Amino acid sequence: MVFSPNTNTTVTDSVATVEKSSDTGWIMHHILDSHEIEIPFIGQVPLPHIEFFGIDISITKHVVFMWLACLILIGIFYFVSKSYQKSRIPTGISNLFEILIVFVRDDIVKPTIGKGYEKFLPFLLTIFFFILVCNFIGLVPYGATATSNISVTATLAIISFIVIQAGGMIKNGPFGYFKGLIPHGVPAWLIPVMLVVEILGLFTKPFALAIRLFANMTAGHIVIMALLGLIFILHTAIVIPVSVAFALFIYLLEVLVAFIQAYIFTMLSSLFIGMAVHQDH
Amino acid sequence: MTAMFKIALLAFYSGDGGNGGLLDVAPGLMIWTTVTFILLLLVLKKLAWKPIINSLNERENFIKDSLEKAEKARADAEVLLEENRKNLARAEEDAQKVITQGREYSEKLKAQALEESKAEAKKMIEDATLNIDRKTQEAFSKLKDQIVDIAVDASEKIIRENLDKEKQKNIVDKYIDDLQKN
Question: B-chain residues within 8 Å CB-CB of A125?
């Protein structure tokens, strides 16, 4: 529990420790979850420890930033849906979010799920915007990327997995759904093997979703940190322009990646839902 | 080289502060994520997705309807325009016909009038000629009568004058003279 009067001391403190020990722990400190939150001009603020039936359910940094993302989303979409009641013509920010909503609906959900996509649209829109905003919060100074935590991405993938399976089972019936996993025209002796492979496949899909999002969001931050860390590791000012230029480049790449990962997570979830719902093709 | 190695190691390095490593799964965070996400889904579904998607669909239908209506109106207008054009063409044709007929009629009328006037003039000339002839005849006969009268009067006068002895004697003498001479 450290209360710094201003951020400068915090930065110089951490730089000093880095220089002294040549430690790279500060990179992980940035990436990992923690029980403290850094707020500009205030410094480190501790977050409460909560325990519930032996499980540590503390409000950590990533939880706070998830909630911030939720508040931002609710605020924006409250405003957007209000603006639709006022007039049929979207203006300003509603226009931007309408483009994204229509993009998710017409270019992701409609082609991949097809008939009956309306039921899954709210889930996929929520997951798209949630991941998008979480990714972008991570790019703001002092922000933390909740989506660079494997627990968060795994949970999102598990929710996606549940939606995929539930969607498939509701549409085809639990028995029909598992029967539909095996492709038509497979020789009888291959069926047990195929069943194992297909059931394994059901779990690898969300696993890949979780790892992809986590790795993409973590990697960019580590690379930016490492590039800037070169300055302190090499103890020379010569690398500063190079480091900063590369870090800036990676940062811009991260903006792109933030979009692409939100898109890919939604796209693949939607695709898997479509495959589970319409098994016959 | 060592720096690169350290960076490579970072992914599997457990940071300090007892928060676990990069790949450690925190059950508390998973619970919070689930709760947060489901609440967000419910709130946004009610607050945003339903009204927004509804109004989007409404607007799409409105645009589709408007376009259809516009298309229909355009087709109607085209039909009307075509009809108008046809009517106009027919009217023009009619007018042309009327004009042609009128011109023909007037031409005929003119020719007829000319013919009639010519005939009348001819007849008038003939009448006039006849009249003149008759008048001339009359005048001639009157002149003849008058001449006869005058001649009779004159001869009467001459005869009365010639009844003098002297003159007769003179004339006879003259005659005798002439006869002697010859």
Answer: 44, 49
Cβ <8 Å between B48 and A81: yes
Per the CB < 8 A criterion, the answer to whether A158 and B77 are in contact is no
Q: Of B13, B51, B55, which has the smallest distance from its Cβ to A28's Cβ?
A: B13
- B49–A122 C-beta distance less than 8 A: yes
Q: Which spans in chain A are helix H?
A: 7-21, 25-31, 61-86, 93-103, 110-113, 121-137, 150-172, 174-180, 191-233, 239-277
At A18 the pLDDT is 46
Q: Is A73 exposed, middle or buried (0-12, 13-18, 19+ CB in 10 A)?
A: buried
* CB contact at 8 A, B51 and A84: yes
Q: Is residue A103 over pLDDT 60?
A: yes
A194 CA: distance to closest CA in chain B (Å): 31
Q: Rounded mean pLDDT of A247-259? A: 91
Q: Cβ–Cβ of A233/B39 closer than 8 Å?
A: no
- What residues of chain A lie within 8 A of the CB of B28, using their CB? 50, 55-58, 60
Tell me, what amino acid is at B9? L
d(CA B17, CA A23): 14
User: Which structure tokens are listed for B172?
Assistant: 């006879």
Looking from the CA of A161 toward its CB, the CA atoms found within 13 Å total 19
State percent of chain B over pLDDT 90. Answer: 44
Average pLDDT over residues A111-138: 89
A19 or A171: whose pLDDT is higher?
Answer: A171
Q: Tell me: the pLDDT tens digits for B4-60?
A: 445 444 444 444 434 457 777 888 888 888 888 999 989 988 888 888 888 888 888
The domain ranges of chain A are 63-277
Q: Is the pLDDT of residue B2 over 80?
A: no
Q: Looking at CA atoms only, how far is residue A157 from chain B in angstroms?
A: 11
Distance from CA of A114 to the nearest CA of B (A): 17
The proportion of chain A whose per-residue pLDDT surpasses 90, expressed as a percent, equals 20
In this complex, which of A25, A81, A127 lies closest to B47 when CB atoms are compared?
A: A81
> B15: which residues sit within 8 A by CB, 6+ positions away?
A25, A28, A29, A31, A32, B21, B22
